[in-house]
Design goal:
Elements (H helix, E strand, L loop, with lengths): L1 H10 L1 H13 L8 H13 L5 E4 L3 E7 L8 E7 L26 H17 L7 E7 L8 H7 L10 E12 L3 E3 L2 E4 L1 E10 L3 E2 L9 H11 L1 H7 L7 E10 L5 E2 L2 E10 L2 H21 L3 E8 L4 E3 L1 H15 L4 E3 L9 H5 L4 E9 L18 H20 L4
Parallel strand pairs: 3-4, 3-5, 5-16, 6-15
Antiparallel strand pairs: 1-2, 2-4, 6-16, 7-14, 8-12, 8-13, 9-11, 10-12
Helix pairs in contact: 1-11, 2-4, 4-11, 6-8, 9-11
Length: 399
């Protein structure tokens, strides 16, 4: 089976790369992925499937019923396909043709690797014991998240998968390698929005004003104690203020209002809620002490990614068999976030990583305008994803 899947993945390599290059040239932002939705649906239709489109506005789902006892078990495979508001500077001949929008997180690679896996699995249909669900998810990069949107729109109304799997490219990892982690892997994420109010006026008469710029600056400093003095040392937490802007100020005008935006990321549900209250109390307390006011809005985002032990061990074992044990790594905790966590709250799962870095070339990072994907990783990923799906149907670890 391994050699057969590797052969099929290799035979369709150029086609899958062509799909990915088309997607890379035509990136679409979250909740605007109409062209991508149509492209994915067309490919699935060509494979003989009957995709459902428009789930969660711009999502796609298709089912593949195996030739043996198709109603007995279902394994879901998921990929995301929204792009980011970033101007590409890779210089690639297939660089983005949509100004200011780029597949800078590798979602084009995810989607086309899954399409390649689907094409392999369709050819193996008669030998599959159970069914497969293929989820092509929009808007992973934008709240409320495509996973939640698709589930709220009836994604699992007819069939609830027994297991679900997804992967993300990792530019810090060389091509040819994959990695995963049991249990807690990625953090929850919540967005923070502050409105700091003072009393504006002439910049040369500060004694008549209440300066919200100064208040906001003190709030930023005071908030450092949330992590350094309130989070337990063994509780990974990140608090970042990423944006500060005044409303109406200039060189000689003290503004009435300053707005700030940031994130808080953690792994523990109780600490997550407590941190919100600490941030609120510190922010309002500092503002009040300085004669102003501060309102905080917490937009609760994605829960932490927590991999099921059995599903993750299965991916590890299958990857070792497919690639060789020297190509498979156990990973550390990661403070990035993923809306795949919403699926995990309902279904046993594993979210793993595929290396995309071409050895001996400069490293880039996700969400950077110079991100380069080693395109050999598409063949590796679509073969591994297909093999893991076949083995998951065989093993049925959750029965």
């Amino acid at each position: 089976m391994i050699e057969e899947i590797k052969r099929m993945a290799h035979e369709q390599r150029e086609e899958v790369i062509g799909w990915r290059r088309w997607m890379h040239r035509h990136p679409e932002l979250s909740q605007e992925e109409y062209g991508t939705m149509a492209f994915v649906a067309e490919r699935l239709t060509e494979m003989g499937l009957q995709p459902r489109t428009g789930i969660g506005k711009t999502g796609v789902m298709a089912m593949l019923r195996g030739g043996i006892d198709p109603d007995s078990y279902c394994v879901a495979l998921r990929a995301d396909y929204d792009a980011l508001p970033i101007t590409e500077c890779t210089g690639l001949p297939f660089a983005s043709e949509n100004p200011g929008v780029m597949h800078a997180c590798g979602h084009d690679m995810h989607t086309c690797s899954l399409l390649g896996a689907v094409k392999i699995l369709v050819q193996l249909r008669d030998r599959l014991r159970g069914s497969l669900m293929f989820i092509f998810e929009p808007s992973e990069e934008k709240y409320p998240g495509g996973a939640r949107m698709m589930m709220n729109d009836g994604l699992f109304d007819e069939v609830m998968p027994n297991e679900i799997y997804s992967f993300h490219c990792l530019p810090e990892m060389d091509f040819g390698k994959v990695g995963m982690r049991k249990g807690k892997y990625m953090a929850s994420t919540d967005e923070l929005y502050w409105t700091v109010r003072g009393r504006g006026g002439h910049g040369a008469t500060p004694h008549l004003n209440v300066d919200p710029v100064l208040i906001a600056s003190h709030i930023v400093i005071a908030l450092q104690q949330v992590v350094s003095r309130n989070a337990a040392p063994m509780m990974p937490t990140v608090l970042t203020i990423g944006k500060i802007e005044d409303v109406g100020g200039r060189t000689n005008i003290t503004p009435e209002v300053v707005k700030m935006e940031g994130i808080i990321r953690s792994f523990d549900p109780e600490w997550r809620l407590r941190s919100h209250e600490l941030i609120r109390r510190i922010s309002s307390g500092v503002a009040e002490a300085m004669g102003g006011e501060c309102d905080l809005f917490v937009d609760e985002g994605y829960p932490p990614v927590i991999n099921d032990d059995a599903c993750t061990q299965q991916v590890y074992d299958n990857a070792c068999a497919f690639l060789g044990a020297d190509k498979v790594e156990w990973l550390d905790l990661r403070m990035t976030a993923e809306d795949f966590a919403f699926y995990q709250q309902k279904i046993p799962s594993c979210y793993f990583r595929v290396g995309i870095h071409e050895p001996d070339t400069p490293l880039s990072n996700l969400h950077r305008p110079n991100l380069i994907v080693d395109e050999r990783s598409l063949e590796l990923a679509n073969g591994l994803v297909a093999y893991n799906a076949v083995k998951a149907l065989e093993n049925r670890i959750k029965l």
